Amino acid sequence: MTLKNDAFPSSVAFDAISSSLASDQAERKDAIKKGNSIFAFNLKNPQGETESWHIDLKETGTVGKGPAPEGKKADVTLSLSDDDFAKLVSGKANAQKLFMSGKLKIKGDAMRATKMEPVLKKAQTKAKL
């Protein structure tokens, strides 16, 4: 099952993150240990449409569509444009700078959001954005 949505070109990164977590059991356990949260991403494309994905680094180490796994709630929600998410995942943008400039909105525990960076770095090597 693909997580990609053609209306959101950067969504291919969620497939890359998912395959990265699924391919290596030790890496997945390490990511869960370090992340210990459910991260939600709300992306907005140039047409004004919004879509949500989540990365469960609390229990399963999986990626899915929607704001959180069924019956659960995200610990941190990051809202940004599809373009800025592509820049963030590709390493062309810095999360702190996006946050400070108002392009990245964080709801929930902002300190936990910083634990997302190593997972996004792994996606950089796999996602071709």
In short:
By secondary structure, the chain is of the alpha+beta class. The chain has helices at residues 12-23, 25-35, 82-90, 95-100, 110-113, 117-126; strands spanning 38-44, 50-56, 62-65, 76-81, 105-108.
Uncertain segments of ≥5 residues (pLDDT<50)? none
- Structural class of the helices, strands and pairings? alpha+beta
Supply the number of helical segments.
6
Overall, the morphology is globular
* Biggest β-sheet description: 5 strands, mixed
The count of strands amounts to: 5
- Helix content range of the residues, please? 40-55%
Tell me the Rg in angstroms.
13 Å
What is the terminal-to-terminal distance? 20 Å
Q: Tell me the fraction of residues in β-strands, as a range.
A: 15-25%
Describe the strand arrangement of the main beta sheet, using strand numbers. Answer: 3-2-1-4-5
If you average the pLDDT, what whole number results? 91
Order of helices and strands: HHEEEEHHEHH
